[in-house]
Amino acid sequence: MQPVKIAQRFQNIQPSGMLKIFQAAAAIDDLSNLGIGEPDFHTEHEIVDAAAKAAKEGMTHYPPLTGYPELRQEICAYWKRHHDLEVAPGEIHLTVGGIQAPHLCFQAMLDPGDEVMVAEPCFTAYFQQVEFNGGVVVPVPSRAENGFFPTAEDFEKAITPRTKILVINSPCNPTGGVITLEQAQSIAEVAKKHDLFVISDEIYEAFVFSGKHIPMASLPGMKERAMTIGGFSKSHCMTGWRIGYVMAPAALLKVMVQLSVVQTFGVNVLSQMGALEALRSQDAKMRGRTEEYEKRIRYSADRLNAMPGVRCPEPKGAFYLFPDISETGMTDEEFSWWLLETAKVATIPGTSFGKSGAGHIRIACTLPMEGLKKAFDRMENALTHRTASA
Ligand code: PMP
Question: Which of the residues 1, 71, 230, 352 has the least number of beta carbons within 10 Å of its own beta carbon?
């Protein structure tokens, strides 16, 4: 008897390589953790107070299914104010974290065997989400010399008659890359020429240190063929509140809303009230945090570039660095494990973000300056010692 008959497609489901290194890191005392992909700041107290007040006033019932109208209105104002993007409240749907957004979109759009091109290295939740929904992932590798974005030609070469969606993420996790206007325009042209839909994950839009954030949907002819993912986890340090949103064409939203009705039945009311306060009162604090991350990330890049065998491109955005460690002679997996074991510094191997991350590690600058200094002192020591004894 085998009453638990797992579906064929989930029979080989495995924890990611990232999880293994996190588990090993958790057992280490006095760890320098450069692995954590979330802000180290707590949610601001104004946001917490707004949510608590709503709870005390009886906002404890089901929410409107697409999100409170006043929150969707504030999201429109935010994108207009910061990125000059025109969106209407009717084009917005609240999601349970930004992570639910691509999942709903794949569910709504993919027929079995449909292909999804994903710019790589990337946040690999997209891979599993495509597969869970019957699609086929086509990773499109990028190169450091292109700021870690595939070129229009790279995408064009990967297109087949089954290609339906192209996924891009700027500012990028894990590379810290920020797409330029020219790059975004040329990718938009490919999407238009081949009638593709674009998922543009812009959850790190608040963290751009060099150049400016270009919303894909702001480019001519893109609004009707793009879904923008936004959120509060990174910009407003609200990872635990599990709230995000999409801006998308009506025909897609209609199906996504229906799907979310039977999955989540809306997004936590108190999180929505916190998010509303975040958009109304937190711009200055958000700017302050971006400045702090920029300071940290520039310091970190300088420290990395002074180490033997490590090359780190100029930081552009998000709070990640993606240095090349191939000159050390170790693979990225070997390097991250070696660094954890010899120097108590946790990083993530680049191949956790797809094959094209080989030879790189991801460093999250989510520690205060003194924590970063300690981590890089340890790392430099270990690398210098290794070079001297080699
Ligand atoms: N997109 C990217 C690129 C991310 O890095 C993350 C979180 N690490 C998410 C989406 C999801 O964020 P959340 O669900 O916390 O809003």
Answer: 1
User: Does the Cβ of 201 fall within 6 Å of ligand 1?
Assistant: yes
- Report helix, strand and coil shares of the chain as percent, to nearest 5: 45, 15, 40
- Locate the ligand 1 atom nearest the alpha carbon of residue 100 and give its number: 14
Cα angle 198-193-151, degrees, rounded to a multiple of 5: 65
CB of 137 closer than 8 Å to CB of 160: no
Segment 229-271, tens digit of pLDDT: 999 999 999 999 999 999 999 999 999 999 999 999 999 999 9
Domain 46-281 has CATH 3.40.50.300: no
Using DSSP's 3-state secondary structure scheme, residue 183 falls into: helix
The model's pTM:
0.96
100 alpha carbon to ligand 1 midpoint, in Å? Answer: 9
Q: Is the Cβ atom of 233 under 6 angstroms away from ligand 1?
A: yes
> CATH assignment of 8-37+284-389, given 3.90.1150.10, 3.90.550.10, 3.40.50.2000, 3.90.660.10?
3.90.1150.10
